[in-house]
Backbone:
């Protein structure tokens, strides 16, 4: 199945001279959008790796050269053979059938390559940049090219001979972007401090062969004069000249499009565009129209003559930045009823994305704020970057009629406190829907509902009841109050009860499918509560050594496959890996681990939870409790999981995690490590130069993507477990991208039908969302769509015990427990290690009292142990 | 689509749930008595009486004067200063054409309220006369004096008809029965209120001293009043009110002890109270500064208003549109109800208004005809023609671009002037606005810029706001962090400005009080917890 979604503004866009359509590279495809309506009108596919640049062939004006197709690929093959590695790419049409590519060398240097488009022959080039190039710009006439290095701006004349040396325009701050004016007289370049340098008459410098410095007055001996424009407070993100050369346009993290009138220095603004600007494209045919690419995955077509936005194309919003404490930012959900994919974007908004039609549906501003770039004071330069307001949790009621969100914003105190806000929303009723565009309207807002941070939010599937859990040790049950008499409005939400379990920090909350039980994770113990009476029903401890001796289920390390469900092949490999891991000594102790996810099984009396070590280090443990016996059914170790959800209509759990597989030769691997170290160093730099950091973000992302695609494949794996056995029922691998979430498609939605979901009782299809915001639907075994492709035979109980494990004393006494075989030492908690128990009688009782067998039975085994002694 | 990129989004002011869950109709009605007009008198306002006739002028007795205020405009109309010593108890005759007032010198005077002429001087009381009332027949008057006697006067002749003797202490209050023009109730400092029949002339034999009935209040009686039906009466004295069944032989129906200090005045209004309830209301003012309203079915307290000084007198206009209270410090407060229920008189006023409107309509039509004739370029109206014309169905209407009106703090916020935005928000004096702005600034990282660089004058409103609201649970979460920032940043500014120091001290006191409260609550919780847990343990397990 083709991937949908994805980031459309990550690469440079391109649009036709008549300004009717524009092209956006996205994944392996090039998307074609109408500039009039913003509709996605076509897709150009054919590349086998991600498309990194797109440019129009000046000769054939109607056809874009989408990454150069055959030519580009051939060039890449040649480069690879030479030991290079493709990195940062730009295709620029030069004059007369020439294309230029900017590549990044694997050792960090940049590389420029010219190509004759007619036959694909590379030109000889003498441009040898020192670092990776940060962009490549050609003058509109095609005669001059410029590429900013770190502190150098290389400018040269295009041509076949390629012997002319490039001229270096040096600057004391790092360049970010550059642009030529239409008359080939002015060269503009932006830097990380927000200044824009205008090099006048740069051709004279080319003729003399001497470069310029930004701090020289110029004019003497042919050195170009440099003037500076300064408005931006953040690095200049993009630059463009108007087609008539009278205006310069610039944009950056301020989300403001600035129009400079070059003759007078006057500025015009188009403010509050909603996201940092990363690209401006003038339209050759219409002087007033520009295409603006924003970092929030939005493309806008603006008319600067009227200072209006004409068209907007919204992609899936990218991840908000992670929170300072290391907690993941953002949240993902699927809306019941409408079936929209709901993602949290930057600036505390929820985007409702129509996953079936692959288009933006609506947007909900959870915190009604104007999008502004954060002000960083000079005094707080050494402090960590401030928290950006964002939505961290969202949960829907079963019908989709109510929505609960948790958003965070920095507190007013100086210590960097976080203010949590819990909000309840109502879907507008049928009469109101026509008038208001917002998908939900605010019902109740609770500021700082807990003393600590909210770690979990759950909505009851049965009633208008929600629960929040906090790391201050309390959970709260929220219920809708009856609506006031003589009033049309719905009832407000109120906190109905507060509970805590031994004042332990709470990390997870989940309602059972009939709403009669609330499970709250307190440390390693899952506690069950009656949400009506707020009474503790049971406490289910996790196995003591969870993660150490448990049967490990590792990732299905299958090869190939384009993000498709993998059947038995991957799982056989998996078995081998499990055996290998079983031989290894146990993993690290997980004393600090805590339950971060909980979910009830839909059609079986089981509760599943995910035990994570703090910070996600050392992997997670999946624990399944049997609610009839109140004991652990089985548990298994997994890598650090990014997503965990329960099937609403079948007894299945979906777990998603990422892992890297290194496939590069030895030399390349060393280079990788070097580069990784470099990157780590970059990340560890204190943000004393925030501008630099931000500026390096784009190339860094590119490099990471390259690494993903080429050598260390980062793969997202989605495993499907049945509560009856620790062997996964199904494994799906997303090749090339890391998975961000795997969600069960709610039944009864258009998306459910599109995913080929079966009737009641069948397994629900999954929607896997990748980190690059592309998503795919994964059909389930047993459903109609999956019958042909992924009819996975039931995997033999791979994780079940093999030989070499002694029978415990209790097992000898009581026989084999029915569901306690999955993981050694986990059954019931009381029989953790029978060997040790035989040596030490006290170990027999090493379990919470409610998890022990009845004394009548325990007594016999105790006597037996004593007699054996 | 959802919202236009490029448009400024206004600051959303937080909305809080209503403080009281139930707002009664009664409370809503009495809160509608708004827009107080405050007039300062020379001495304590001892008596207020509303004219029974429209437009309900009211006579206010204070010190040596009687002031007549306009019932419409609440402006002073006349001042009667024909008293050698203190004046007491100025009351209107039923038709509003005469005014009677007692005095410290014992002379009861009858005035013409328009010309302020003294029409009669009734000399007879040996000591101060505190109360004087016209009888329902318009020709007689009863006065009560400190010489423990009430006297019955014929005004036409200016002679005393009889004296009602029987009280043993000052007679301070009088009330005429609405049911009979001859039955009078007098209240005295001898702890009793006595019912008289003036036809008997006070010469009825027996130990009662001539009174028909004697009601023992138990404290010096300050004021008496009959219910509109005449069957019941209320006496005020000490800190209690007593309701008596006069028809039932003087049975005490109810004793109301809702006051901390002496009840000085009572008033009854058949029209006061919300629409839904028809029962009349009893108002009573007390030296503890409260005016309390009782309903007369179950005699329950329905509303209470606090005044800044001891209340000496209250009055309510016959249509219940004006509520006046006279205080011991000389303040006269008159509140007007937004929507008085009115009676027949109000209906008459409406009819008069309608008639005037019709007359105006005739005049207006003529004026309009004149205006139509004058429509040429020499008039301003000429240039306004067609403004109100509606677009025809086929017309192409160009929508006027309406610019959103921004609050001052929004204007500053839009221009990223964070300090000015905070100043503008503080100037609104609305804690919700300041809260929302501070949170917005925190989310933008602009709080240091907004708080820094203030001098004493700039810091003062901020610190005062913090001191006022930092202990409020609604705003504490936001303001505590700001207060910490301010105190940290401006520690060197302490002891440079006296007003700033005072504000900082107020902030410290507010925080100290809050800490004390939290400590006390923790102590109470600690005391309660064993009891609760014992109770839970004792309770049967299960649901």
Residues:
């Amino acid at each position: 199945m083709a991937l949908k979604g994805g980031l459309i503004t990550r690469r440079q866009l391109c649009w036709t001279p008549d300004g009717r359509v524009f092209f956006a590279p996205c994944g392996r495809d090039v998307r074609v959008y109408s500039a009039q309506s913003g509709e996605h009108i076509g897709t150009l596919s054919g590349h086998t790796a991600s498309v990194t640049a797109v440019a129009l062939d000046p000769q054939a004006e109607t056809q874009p050269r989408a990454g150069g197709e055959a030519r580009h690929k051939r060039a890449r093959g040649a480069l690879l053979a030479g030991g290079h590695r493709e990195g940062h790419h730009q295709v620029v049409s030069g004059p007369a059938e020439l294309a230029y590519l900017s590549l990044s060398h694997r050792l960090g240097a940049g590389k420029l390559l010219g190509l004759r488009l007619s036959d694909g022959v590379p030109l000889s080039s003498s441009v040898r940049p020192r670092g990776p190039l940060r962009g490549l710009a050609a003058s509109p006439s095609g005669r001059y090219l410029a590429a900013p290095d770190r502190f150098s701006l290389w400018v040269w004349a295009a041509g076949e001979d390629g012997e002319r040396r490039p001229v270096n325009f040096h600057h004391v701050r790092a360049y970010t972007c550059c642009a030529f004016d239409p008359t080939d007289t002015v060269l503009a370049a932006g830097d990380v401090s927000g200044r824009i340098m205008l090099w006048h008459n740069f051709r004279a410098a080319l003729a003399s062969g001497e470069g310029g410095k930004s701090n020289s007055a110029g004019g003497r001996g042919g050195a170009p004069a440099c003037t500076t424009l300064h408005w931006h407070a953040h690095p200049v993100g993009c630059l463009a000249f108007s087609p008539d050369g009278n205006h310069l346009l610039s944009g950056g993290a301020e989300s403001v499009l600035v129009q400079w009138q070059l003759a007078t220095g006057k500025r015009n603004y188009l403010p509050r565009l909603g996201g940092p600007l990363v690209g401006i494209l003038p339209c050759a045919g219409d002087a007033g129209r520009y295409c603006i690419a924003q970092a929030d995955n939005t493309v806008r077509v603006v008319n600067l003559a009227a200072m209006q936005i004409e068209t907007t194309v919204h992609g899936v919003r990218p991840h908000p930045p992670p929170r300072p404490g290391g907690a993941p930012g953002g949240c993902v959900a699927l809306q019941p009823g409408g079936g929209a994919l709901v993602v949290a974007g930057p600036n505390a908004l929820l985007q409702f994305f129509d996953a079936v039609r692959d288009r933006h549906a609506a947007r909900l501003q959870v915190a009604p704020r104007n999008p502004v770039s954060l002000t960083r004071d000079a005094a707080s330069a050494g402090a960590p970057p401030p928290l950006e307001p964002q939505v961290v949790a969202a949960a829907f009621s079963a019908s989709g009629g109510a929505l609960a969100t948790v958003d965070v914003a920095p507190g007013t105190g100086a210590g960097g406190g976080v203010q949590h806000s819990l909000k309840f929303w109502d879907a507008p009723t049928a009469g109101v829907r026509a008038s208001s565009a917002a998908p939900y309207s605010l019902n109740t807002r609770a500021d700082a509902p807990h003393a600590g941070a909210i770690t979990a939010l759950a909505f009851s599937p049965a009633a208008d009841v929600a629960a929040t859990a906090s790391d201050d040790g309390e959970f709260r049950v929220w219920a809708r109050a009856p609506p006031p008499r003589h009033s049309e409005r719905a009832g407000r939400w109120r906190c109905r009860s507060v509970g805590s379990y031994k004042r332990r920090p709470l990390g997870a909350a989940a309602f059972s499918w009939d709403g009669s039980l609330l499970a709250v994770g307190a440390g390693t113990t899952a506690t069950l509560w009656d949400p009506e009476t707020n009474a503790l029903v049971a406490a289910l401890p996790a196995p003591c050594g969870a993660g150490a001796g448990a049967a490990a289920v590792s990732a299905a390390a299958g090869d190939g496959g384009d993000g498709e469900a993998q059947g038995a092949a991957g799982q056989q490999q998996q078995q081998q890996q499990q055996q290998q891991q079983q031989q290894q000594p146990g993993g690290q102790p997980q004393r600090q681990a805590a339950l971060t996810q909980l979910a009830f099984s839909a059609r079986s009396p089981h509760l599943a939870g995910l035990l994570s070590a703090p910070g996600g280090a050392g992997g997670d443990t999946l624990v399944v409790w049997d609610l009839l016996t109140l004991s652990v059914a089985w548990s298994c170790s997994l890598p650090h999981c990014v997503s965990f959800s329960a099937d609403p209509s079948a007894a299945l759990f979906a777990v998603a995690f990422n892992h890297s597989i290194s496939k590069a030769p030895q030399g390349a691997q060393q280079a990788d490590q070097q580069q990784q170290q470099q990157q780590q160093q970059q990340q560890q730099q204190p943000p004393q130069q925030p501008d630099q950091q931000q500026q390096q973000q784009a190339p860094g992302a590119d490099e990471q993507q390259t690494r993903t695609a080429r050598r260390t494949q980062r793969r997202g794996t989605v495993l499907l477990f049945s509560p009856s056995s620790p062997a996964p029922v199904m494994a799906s691998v997303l090749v090339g991208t890391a998975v961000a979430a795997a969600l069960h498609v709610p039944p009864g939605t258009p998306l459910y039908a599109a995913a080929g979901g079966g009737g009641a009782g069948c397994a629900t299809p999954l929607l896997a969302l990748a980190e690059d915001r592309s998503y795919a639907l994964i059909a389930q075994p047993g459903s109609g769509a999956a019958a042909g492709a992924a009819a996975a035979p039931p995997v033999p109980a791979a994780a079940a015990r093999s030989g070499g494990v002694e029978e415990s004393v209790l097992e000898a006494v009581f026989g084999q427990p029915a569901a306690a075989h999955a993981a050694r030492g986990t059954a019931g908690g009381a029989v953790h290690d029978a060997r040790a128990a035989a040596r030490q009688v006290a170990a027999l009782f090493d379990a919470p009292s409610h998890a022990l067998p009845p004394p009548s039975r325990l007594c016999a085994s105790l006597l037996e142990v004593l007699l054996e002694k | 689509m959802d919202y236009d990129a490029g448009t400024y989004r206004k600051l959303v002011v937080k909305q809080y749930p209503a403080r009281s869950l139930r707002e009664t109709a009664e409370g809503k009605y009495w809160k509608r008595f708004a827009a107080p007009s405050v007039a300062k008198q020379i001495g304590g306002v001892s008596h207020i009486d509303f004219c029974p006739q429209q437009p309900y002028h009211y006579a206010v007795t204070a010190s040596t004067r009687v002031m007549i205020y306009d019932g419409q405009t609440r402006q002073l109309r006349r001042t009667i200063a024909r008293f050698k010593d203190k004046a007491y108890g100025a009351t209107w005759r039923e038709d509003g054409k005469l005014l009677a007032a007692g005095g410290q010198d014992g002379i009861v005077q009858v005035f013409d309220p328009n010309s302020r002429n003294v029409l009669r001087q009734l000399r007879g009381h040996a000591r101060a006369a505190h109360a004087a009332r016209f009888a329902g027949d318009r020709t007689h008057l009863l006065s009560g004096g400190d010489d423990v006697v009430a006297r019955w006067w014929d005004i036409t002749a200016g002679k005393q008809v009889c004296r009602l003797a029987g009280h043993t202490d000052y007679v301070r209050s009088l009330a005429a029965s609405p049911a009979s023009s001859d039955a009078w109730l007098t209240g005295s400092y001898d702890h009793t209120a006595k019912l008289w029949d003036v036809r008997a002339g006070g010469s009825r034999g027996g130990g009662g001293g001539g009174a028909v009935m004697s009601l023992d209040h138990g404290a010096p009686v300050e004021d008496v009043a009959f219910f509109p039906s005449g069957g019941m009466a209320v006496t005020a004295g000490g800190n209690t009110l007593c309701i008596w069944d006069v028809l039932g032989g003087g049975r005490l129906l109810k004793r109301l002890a809702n006051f901390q200090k002496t009840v000085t005045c009572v008033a009854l209004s058949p029209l006061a109270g919300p629409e839904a309830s028809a029962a009349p209301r009893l108002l009573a003012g007390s030296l503890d500064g409260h005016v309390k309203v009782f309903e007369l079915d179950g005699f329950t307290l329905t509303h209470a208003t606090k005044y800044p000084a001891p209340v000496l007198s209250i009055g309510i206009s016959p249509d219940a549109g004006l509520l006046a209270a006279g205080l011991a410090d000389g303040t006269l407060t008159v509140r007007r109800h937004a929507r008085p229920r009115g009676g027949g008189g109000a209906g008459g006023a409406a009819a008069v208004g309608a008639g005037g409107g019709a007359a105006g309509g005739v005049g207006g039509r003529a004026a309009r005809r004149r205006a139509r004739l004058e429509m040429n370029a020499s008039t301003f109206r000429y240039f306004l023609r067609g403004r109100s014309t509606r677009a025809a169905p086929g017309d192409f209407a160009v929508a006027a671009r309406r610019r959103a009106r921004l609050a001052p703090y929004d204007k500053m916020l839009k221009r990223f002037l964070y300090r000015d935005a905070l100043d503008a928000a503080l100037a609104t004096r609305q804690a919700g606005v300041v809260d929302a702005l501070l949170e917005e600034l925190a989310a933008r990282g602009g709080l240091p810029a907004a708080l820094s660089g203030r001098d004493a004058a700039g810091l003062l409103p901020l610190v005062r706001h913090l001191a006022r609201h930092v202990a409020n649970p609604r705003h504490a979460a936001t303001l505590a962090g700001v207060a910490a920032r301010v105190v940290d940043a401006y520690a060197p500014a302490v002891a440079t400005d006296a007003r700033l120091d005072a504000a900082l001290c107020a902030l410290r006191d507010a925080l100290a009080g809050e800490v004390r409260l939290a400590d006390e609550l923790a102590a109470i919780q600690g005391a309660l917890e064993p009891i609760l847990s014992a109770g839970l343990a004792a309770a049967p397990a299960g649901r």
